[in-house]
Design a protein that fits this description.
The structure is a homodimer. With about 300 residues, the first copy, chain A, is α+β, with helices and mostly antiparallel strands. The first copy, chain A, has 9 helices and 9 strands. The two termini of chain A are about 40 Å apart.
């Protein structure tokens, strides 16, 4: 939960000689990193973020970096990877794969307003539409196979009721929804991965769960975080605002309308499961304070019990 | 000297449907355009500039758009062309080739300080180094052939002394300097084509004279504007600051040091000549107030008379 690999001013200065970014003005570690080491880097050319990849390997990274470059090129406010003097996005620093990307304005918020949910919905629709012309594919690393495997691992830590709920849900979502528009999804657009600049979306960040999937699933992941009230139920006003704004940017199909309840459940299941895993099977020292799985269990239970879903 | 082609809110709204930029929030004509029609366009995704090309054709434009995209991708603060849903930078609007690019912060200044000249020099060096990995080539449309042809056209409007000066200078620069590092040059980095954000360079704009050429010639064009005093002589302090900052980013070769006086003269000649042409042979209604050629004649004469040039 920190800077895992230390980068000194001398390290970054030497590394920047491979780029056309000017000289270093400021270097500042970002403590929020969970999977990667991040630094704010200010140079003569502007403000950037340096990332050292602690787990992802140089094989995985081209998909993410090319995706961000593609979206930025289409005017989506996401980190734009900077190419070095050999035209490469990916370098190596202190033994880790590393890249430097543009730093975006804004900050993440915890209590989005209706207007902010609408802005987020519109931006998600734009991101999905821009992603349609991106050629690369990536399997969802948190898809059906991962759910089946992970539920087997965590089941033994659960009460019989919770284990039964989990097993049932994994079965319900074992087969993918078909006939739903697919494309590039961010798959983790929680509030803390979005920088708001007032009512505007200033930046979408942290694309390292991005993959190919049902666009509707990405909408469900986003709403399950942005539009949730304290009881783990979707707030009707924020939900409608986000869905309508999305629909104006990338119209939902009839089939998507029908698949909405199912998608909300699948999205809740994914995060209940990963949080159960992080709680019961933490990797060495990685997450000091794993996030509470109960929150997503409750959301899932509420979705299952709901008969009337807010739609457009 | 204005918006040549009117674009309505309905026009741009329909056009934006080809992009992933969100909905139109504001449209505002930019009166400063000389060659193109420009509008500020604000959408849900941010701030952009729309350009309708009034003279350049769709054949010429890929070089400029790809160059800006290349430099932006290397972290140079220049307008970044936005791709449409078919991944294309170039579209058509109201019968003109058109593109939309990112809008940069800052504003142009008229009296640069020593610190600002240093920032500009460093940025020019970074731009040249980033341009070295750009593959496309473009002949300088204001090169030796243009100089010879244009001097023939304007000579008859000049006094015998000025005509002799012009003819002699065109002869002096008829053969290109050899052994000088070449690459992509902006070729028009006057103060009004640079947006300053305090002491930082916020943006380099208007790349429509960019071409392949001697990098040193670009430095000379820039200094002839940024570091000039009221008498048409280079200010020693600003000159040294700009050259040293450039040198730190992209070291000059020994041969470049030797070619410096010649480059300053060639750069002054180019603008004396184009201003003479605009004054004496204006294209229909294009420039209501052509800029005074005398300014660059004086700079040229001063350079010719100078025996000791400020260098690093």
């Amino acid at each position: 939960m920190a800077v895992f690999t230390t980068v000194s001013e001398a390290d970054i200065t030497a590394w920047l000689a491979n780029y056309s970014l000017g000289t270093l003005l400021e270097l500042q570690g970002i403590p929020e990193g969970v999977q990667n080491t991040n630094y704010f880097v200010t140079t003569g050319n502007g403000r950037f973020v340096l990332t050292l990849f602690e787990k992802l390997t140089a094989d995985d990274l081209p998909f993410y970096l090319n995706l961000m470059a593609h979206l930025a090129r289409h005017g989506i406010p996401c980190p734009s990877p900077v190419a070095d003097r050999h035209n490469r996005f990916l370098g190596e620093l202190n033994g880790k794969p590393a890249c430097i990307v543009s730093r975006l304005p804004g900050k993440s918020i915890t209590e989005p307003t209706v207007a902010q949910c609408a802005a987020m919905g519109a931006m998600l629709g734009q991101m999905h539409s821009a992603g349609l012309s991106f050629g690369d594919q990536m399997l969802n690393p948190r898809g059906a196979a991962w759910r089946a495997e992970t539920s087997q691992k965590v089941k033994k830590f659960l009460s019989p009721q919770d284990a039964a709920l989990l097993e049932n849900e994994v079965d319900v979502h074992a087969l993918p929804l078909t006939g739903i528009p697919r494309g590039v999804i961010h798959a983790d657009l929680f509030r803390d991965n979005v920088l708001m600049d007032g009512d505007r979306v200033g930046g979408l960040v942290d694309f390292y769960f991005a993959c190919t999937g049902n666009l509707l699933y990405d909408v469900a992941i986003t709403l399950n975080d942005w539009c949730m009230n304290d009881e783990g139920r979707l707030d009707a006003e924020r939900t409608r605002a986000m869905l309508r704004a999305y629909h104006a940017a990338r119209p939902f199909t009839t089939r998507e309308a029908g698949a909405w309840p199912q998608s909300l459940r699948a999205a809740a299941l994914r995060f209940w499961l990963s949080r159960l895993h992080d709680q019961h099977l933490p990797r060495g020292g990685e997450l000091v304070n794993p996030r509470n799985p109960e929150h997503f269990k409750r959301i899932l239970q509420n979705h299952i019990a709901t008969t009337e879903f807010v739609w457009l």
